[in-house]
Amino acid sequence: MPNAQTEDLSDLDSMWADAKEPEFNDYSDLVGSHILRIDRCAVETSRNSKRMLVWEWSIVTPPHVGREYVDRNMLESAQNLGWLKVRLRQVGVGVDAPDFQIGPFLETGRGVVIGKLVRGRIFEGKPSDQGQRNFNLALEGGPRTLGSAVATDADVAAWNPAKAGGTAPAGAVNNEPAAAGAASPGNPWNPQ
Fold first, then answer.
1. Which residues are paired to 51 by β-bridges?
2. CA distance 137 to 103
3. What pLDDT digit, counting tens, does each position of 26-41 carry?
4. Which of 66, 119, 140, 143 is deepest in the core (most CB within 10 A)?
5. Could you tell me if 43 and 53 are in contact, meaning their C-beta atoms sit under 8 angstroms apart?
6. Residue 86 CB contacts under 8 Å (≥ 6 apart), including other chains
7. Would you list the DSSP string of 112-165?
8. Which residues fall within 8 angstroms of residue 191, CB to CB, at 6 or more apart?
């Protein structure tokens, strides 16, 4: 059997012209805290044929209104599912309910998270083995539902008074309503 040094590799020339370098998302301008809306949550297959849950988010606060961020949870190991459990809990899914099952949720229940708004921080993680920059999303606080695609200054004030010069809703602890109904009347961040 010929080795790579003596084998004819000219067949690679035809593929070389059409080969596209992989695209990597550069979110360096988005590093920092934002309010994000979940626009899509879908089970897909990675390039390595691994199952993953793909999250597509839109930033709804200035100056990055409308910018998208894509995040993934792998679904191939107990450790992966542990991270997914944390994420689902953060976006308001009742993963601790005695009858909760991840399979049926992933098959048909993902729609319950669409439209939810969360406060999160995008940060740069360690580079990949190939030197690719990696960005991560850490969620902060619980989910809120808002009908509008763009959060207003009042919405931001209700969520984070320190940033917007607003005041915390009645019953708020650490800028979070203590319980459903604890927020001021008409506050779009009132937990659902």
1. 45
2. 24
3. 788 888 888 889 999 9
4. 119
5. yes
6. none
7. GGTTEEEEEEEEE-PPPTT----EEEEEEEEEEE-SSSS--HHHHHHH-HHHHT
8. 92, 142, 143, 144, 177, 179, 180, 183
User: For 82, left (φ over 0), alpha (ψ -120 to 50), or beta?
Assistant: alpha
pLDDT at 149: 47
Query: pLDDT tens digits for 60-70?
Result: 888 888 899 99
- 3-state SS, 68-91, equals EEEEEEECCCHHHHHHHHHHHHHC
Name the residue with higher pLDDT: 48 or 130. Answer: 48
What is the Cα–Cα distance from 70 to 176, expressed in whole angstroms? 26
Q: Averaged over 126-153, what is the pLDDT?
A: 69
What pLDDT is attached to residue 145?
58
In Å, how far from its chain's centre is CA 139? 8
